[in-house]
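Hi V.,

Quick status before I head out on leave. The structure for the redesign project is tokenized and pasted below; the design run finished overnight.
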């Protein structure tokens, strides 16, 4: 049974069952260089200003021009924002499922490290969904400036916990989310727009391929970073995305032989070209060791990494004595009833109870929809000019891809009728389990009660047609499409890939006490379900996966006793220090 459709700017998930049953002014750490011993790149010290043009705009006058992904080389490392073009690509899933992606313009914001950026790692940030923008992780206490109202009620504040003290930061919005937008030949054609929302564009592997292309092309346009270590920092569904990204990269030689469930020759060739530029001695596809030298660490914030097995394990733990559900019951007087039949999803049942008790399933100590309401404040700030420029730390008026006249072929919605964007009116909604309908209705009720500001971008960049929009915090159409993909985010392959990855990649996973959507204790428990795992030993701030072949892997798993699903919102200083020490 597919689990709840979770609507949030951070995460929207589905699930099934286990097969086996205080803040101003950055403080710089001048001696932190996490992997200096691994990085022998010779850098060019050049103070030339970064180019204002984004990488590869579509033709300004015609939507049917293929985006050119040739990169513009940036001399020096400065604050920078723009778009990276993704062309249409043919690929296969499961060796028989032929697919073709649509064109897209992918938004990014880059913030260089406070000191010696050429020598520091690149952290790549994204949120989840699938279908969510990366605004929350960008606006709330990881970037140079924070929009957190706890530090500046109406504007921004300098972030004492800015990760620019640790390295360079790259924030990316997934296809059709945030500021990223899709492209069709004729966006006025209802069928063309509707056809874009297909499983060819929206599944675990197509999504991962998008991000690999963006990361490699960004690094290719910034030679000072091309060989630097990369740390993937995904939140929520971003954990699944990180899993697929790393698995493709680490095993690209095997993928290129068509021995896996995904085959995209042009992507594999682009990966190989990147690593050959770093190390000319590499012939053919890079080895796992060569890839792990650069992509050797991941930070996962309240992630989904084991699909259906993870949610099943969470459900079992939530029904056990001492779980947060009984705390809610005691505090609210609302009775919690365990599942009474084998067809009952324990995780769904827990979430339904939390909602019925009037608590937020992303932060059970707080009222229902607290996290939505809280983080909408920061997003609304960002969508106001010139506040937007204060957050991205470069001049948005120089970003050509934001202007209406330059958005050839751009669109966001299948319907030009804004009244039909309610997910309850989407035809796919009727095919969802009843509990998912309840969650979707709850999300829409919250949005209707407190609509997100659309901002004032049109006053600067021009008016857009009704099927387009400058910023989309959450796309319901993307999430509905993911649920019907050949490989989705609750597929068993996700947990298998995660376990394969951690053998080569040092891993940090947050453990937030207040999160019920991702009840963190279920992560190590769920890994016991998979073949090749002989056991999992859990400690207070770590767990060790013991493999049947004798290898044991330690995963850092720090506990955050005051945190919701979004740890940077609630405990940014602790998260920053934990990551700094872990590096």
């Amino acid at each position: 049974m597919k689990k709840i459709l979770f609507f949030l700017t951070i995460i929207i998930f589905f699930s099934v069952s286990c097969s086996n049953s205080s803040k101003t002014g950055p403080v710089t750490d001048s001696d932190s260089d996490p992997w200096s011993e691994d990085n022998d790149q010779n850098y060019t010290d050049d103070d030339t200003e970064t180019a204002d043009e984004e990488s590869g705009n579509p033709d300004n006058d015609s939507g049917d021009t293929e985006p050119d992904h040739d990169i513009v080389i940036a001399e020096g490392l400065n604050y920078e924002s723009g778009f990276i073009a993704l062309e249409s690509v043919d690929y296969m899933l499961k060796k028989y499922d032929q697919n073709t992606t649509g064109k897209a313009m992918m938004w990014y914001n880059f913030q260089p490290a406070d000191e010696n950026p050429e020598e520091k790692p690149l952290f790549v940030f994204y949120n989840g969904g699938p279908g969510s923008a990366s605004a929350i992780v960008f606006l709330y206490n990881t970037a140079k400036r924070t929009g957190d109202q706890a530090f500046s009620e109406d504007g921004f504040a300098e972030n004492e916990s800015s990760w620019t003290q640790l390295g360079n930061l790259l924030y990316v919005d997934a296809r059709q989310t945030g500021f990223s937008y899709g492209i069709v030949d004729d966006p006025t054609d209802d069928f063309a727009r509707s056809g874009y929302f297909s499983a060819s564009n929206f599944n675990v592997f197509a999504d991962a391929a998008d991000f690999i292309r963006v990361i490699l092309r960004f690094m290719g346009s910034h030679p000072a970073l091309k060989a630097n270590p990369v740390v993937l920092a995904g939140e929520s569904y971003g954990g699944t995305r990180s899993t697929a990204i790393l698995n493709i990269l680490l095993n690209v030689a095997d993928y290129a032989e068509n021995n896996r469930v995904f085959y995209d020759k042009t992507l594999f060739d682009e990966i190989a070209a990147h690593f050959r530029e770093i190390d000319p001695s590499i012939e053919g596809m890079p080895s796992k060791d060569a890839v792990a030298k650069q992509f050797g660490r991941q930070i996962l914030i309240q992630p989904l990494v084991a699909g259906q097995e993870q949610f099943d394990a969470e459900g079992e733990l939530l029904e056990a004595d001492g779980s947060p559900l009984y705390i809610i019951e005691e505090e609210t007087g609302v009775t919690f009833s365990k599942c009474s039949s084998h067809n009952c999803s324990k995780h769904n049942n827990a979430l339904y109870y939390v909602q019925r008790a009037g608590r937020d399933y992303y932060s059970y100590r707080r009222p229902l929809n607290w996290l939505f309401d809280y983080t909408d404040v920061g997003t609304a700030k960002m969508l106001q000019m010139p506040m937007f420029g204060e957050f991205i730390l470069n001049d948005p008026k120089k970003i050509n891809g934001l202007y209406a006249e330059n958005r050839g072929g751009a669109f966001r919605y299948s319907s030009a009728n804004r009244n039909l964007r309610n997910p309850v009116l989407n035809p796919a909604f009727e095919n969802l389990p009843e509990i998912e309908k309840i969650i979707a209705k709850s999300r829409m009720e919250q949005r209707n009660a407190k609509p997100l500001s659309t901002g004032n971008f049109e006053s600067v960049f021009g008016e857009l047609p009704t099927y387009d929009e400058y910023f989309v915090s959450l796309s319901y159409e993307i999430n509905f499409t993911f649920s019907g993909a050949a490989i989705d985010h609750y597929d068993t392959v996700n947990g298998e890939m995660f376990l394969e990855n951690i053998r080569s990649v040092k891993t940090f996973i947050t453990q937030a006490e207040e999160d019920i959507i991702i009840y963190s204790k279920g992560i190590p428990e769920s890994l016991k379900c998979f073949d090749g795992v002989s056991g999992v030993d859990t400690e207070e701030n770590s767990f060790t996966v013991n493999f049947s072949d004798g290898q044991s892997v330690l995963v850092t798993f720090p506990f955050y006793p005051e945190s919701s699903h979004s740890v940077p919102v609630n405990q940014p200083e602790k998260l920053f220090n934990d990551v700094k020490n872990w590096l």
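Above is the designed sequence. The longest helix spans residues 204-220.

G. will cover questions while I'm gone.

Best,
W.
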